[in-house]
C-alpha cells in the first residue's frame, strides 16, 4: 500500500509540474525513480550515439559496417530533423569512447531533458527490425511512440522483440526519462544491407525525431496505461545478463 501511495503522489506532483506542452511549459524536473507520467513540454533532447572509439559495437558480416559509425550518423540525422524545435545535446560528436556511467552522469545533470540512446543490434540471424528499451514509468510513452513510428517506417517490423522493459544503465540509471533504441539487426544480412543505406537511416531518423516531437507536444496521450512502477536498484556492470 505504501508503494502505491508514493506512486499516486508522484503522479499528482508530475501532473502539476510537467506543464501543458509547447514553449511555455514548465521544465521537466529530474527524478531518481521516474515513477510518474511521461514528459510533455520538455526543452532538451540528449542524443547518445552508442559505442565509439575503441568500442565498435556490433559489426556486420555482410557489409562490414560498424555500429558506432551507423549510430553516430543516425543521431546526427535526428538532430537535424529536430530542426531547432528543442535544444539538442550530442553525447558525442566524433569517434571517441565514453564510459556508460559517464553518459549517465552527463544526462542526469540537465533539467527539462530526455535521453535517447541510438544503437544497432546483433543476435540470431533470423531477427530483424527495431526494438526500443525502457525502464522508468516516465519513459514508457516515449518508448511507445518511437517503437510505433519505427515499425511504420520499416518492412517486416515484427520479426523481433518490439518494445522491451529492461533495466540497463542507460534506461534505469539516468534521472531523466530515457530510452535506448536499437534501429535494426546488423546480424541479419538483408537488414544489414538496408542499414548501410544512407536513405534508409534517414528514414529511421525521421521516425525517431517525429516521435520525440509528438511526445513533447502531447505527453503520454494515446500511448496506453502507465506501467507498474518497479523499485529496482541502479544497473551495474556486474549485474547478471538480463537482470
Structure overview:
It is built from 7 helices and 6 strands; from the N terminus they run αβαβαββαβαβαα. The protein is of the alpha/beta class. The protein has a single domain (42-218), classed as Zn-dependent exopeptidases (Aminopeptidase), CATH 3.40.630.40. The chain has a 6-stranded mixed sheet with strand order 2-1-3-6-4-5. β4, α4 and β5 (163-165) form a beta-alpha-beta unit. α2 (67-82) crosses α7 (198-218) and α4 packs antiparallel against α7. The chain is globular. Residues 1-26 have low confidence and may be disordered.
Name the descriptors.
six-stranded mixed beta sheet; disordered N terminus; Aminopeptidase; alpha/beta; 6 strands; 243 residues; 7 helices
Identify the CATH class.
Answer: Alpha Beta
- Globally, the shape reads globular
> Uncertain segments of ≥5 residues (pLDDT<50)?
1-26
Q: Find the CATH superfamily.
A: Zn-dependent exopeptidases
Give the SSE string: HEHEHEEHEHEHH
Specify the structural class.
alpha/beta
Strand order in the sheet with the most strands? 2-1-3-6-4-5
Oligomer: single chain
Tally of separate helices: 7
Structural domain count: 1
CATH fold node name = Aminopeptidase
Q: How many beta-strand elements?
A: 6
The residue-averaged pLDDT reads 90
Main β sheet profile: 6 strands, mixed
Helix content: 25-40%
Amino acid at each position: 500500500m505504501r508503494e502505491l501511495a508514493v506512486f499516486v503522489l508522484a503522479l499528482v506532483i508530475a501532473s502539476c509540474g510537467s506543464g501543458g506542452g509547447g514553449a511555455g511549459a514548465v521544465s521537466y524536473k529530474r527524478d531518481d525513480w521516474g515513477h510518474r507520467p511521461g514528459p510533455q513540454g520538455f526543452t532538451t533532447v540528449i542524443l547518445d550515439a552508442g559505442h565509439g572509439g575503441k568500442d565498435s559495437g556490433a559489426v556486420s558480416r555482410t557489409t562490414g559496417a560498424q555500429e558506432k559509425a551507423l549510430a553516430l550518423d543516425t543521431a546526427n540525422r535526428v538532430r537535424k530533423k529536430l530542426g531547432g524545435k528543442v535544444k539538442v545535446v550530442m553525447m558525442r560528436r566524433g569517434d571517441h569512447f565514453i564510459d556508460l556511467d559517464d553518459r549517465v552522469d552527463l544526462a542526469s545533470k540537465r533539467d527539462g531533458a530526455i535521453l535517447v540512446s541510438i544503437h544497432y543490434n546483433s543476435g540470431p540471424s533470423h531477427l530483424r527490425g527495431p526494438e526500443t528499451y525502457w525502464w522508468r514509468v516516465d519513459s514508457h510513452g516515449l518508448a511507445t511512440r518511437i517503437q510505433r513510428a519505427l515499425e511504420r517506417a520499416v518492412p517486416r517490423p515484427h520479426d523481433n522483440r518490439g518494445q522491451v522493459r529492461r533495466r540497463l544503465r542507460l534506461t534505469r540509471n539516468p534521472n531523466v526519462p530515457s530510452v535506448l533504441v536499437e534501429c535494426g539487426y546488423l546480424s541479419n544480412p538483408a537488414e544489414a544491407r538496408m542499414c548501410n543505406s544512407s536513405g534508409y537511416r534517414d528514414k529511421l531518423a525521421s521516425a525517431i525525431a517525429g516521435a520525440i516531437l509528438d511526445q513533447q507536444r502531447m505527453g503520454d496521450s494515446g500511448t496506453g496505461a502507465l506501467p507498474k512502477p518497479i523499485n529496482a536498484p541502479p544497473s551495474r556492470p556486474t549485474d547478471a545478463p538480463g537482470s
